[in-house]
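Structure tokens please, single chain.
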Amino acid sequence: MWLFLIMGIAFIATGFAIHVLKWHFLIAGYNTMPKDKRQEVDVEGLGRLMGIYSYINGGVFILSAFIYSLGFELALISAVIFTLIATIFLIIRAQKYGGNLSKGPYKYKSGGVVISVISLIVVLALFYSTMQPTRVNLLEEGLEIEGIYGGLYHWEEIEEVHLLEKMPKIKRRTSGAAVGSHLKGHFSSEIGPVKLFVNKNLPPFILLETAGRDVIFNMGSPDETLKIFDEILIRINNLSN
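Here you go.
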């Protein structure tokens, strides 16, 4: 939430600097043009466009941070999607202000749009993947967690298994994704480095202590988590017998 609030303030500050203070050197592309080409650009109009873009996106980020604090997790995702769409519009709209912005090869214009569209798709895919319930397969050789950060944990590698009613305190994300209450990937916690596949709002949680890194996960519902926990205990007990 705080990151989005800071980004919102940064957007507004940048818009103010370009639009009001006339710091046009902050406009990407314009600041690298030769002086003769800059004369062909309606820099006032372009600066106004950049200002409006920055003000709106800054407001959206600040509003999304506030809405998220009220418990609406999708607010942050909506802000990112809005900004990517607004960026595509900005790239297209900026062409009308002249200079190399409009007279350059069309491929530069379309290329920017394509890159933005691809970025939007990648972000949406990441958010969608992160927010999906954990999928677990109990195989003969071990427990398999599906997904980009998943893996196979052999039964003989699992040293202990615990059912947690409360998540350990998470200090920071080292490599992974965090979308609202959905955490997937590598994190640093009060119990040390852990790999998480959890929705923090759906206790309980299963902690696997392995020879490598501890793993904490839960399923799409508390009942599913309890069922998987019981099945894991059965597999481990059968192995020890």
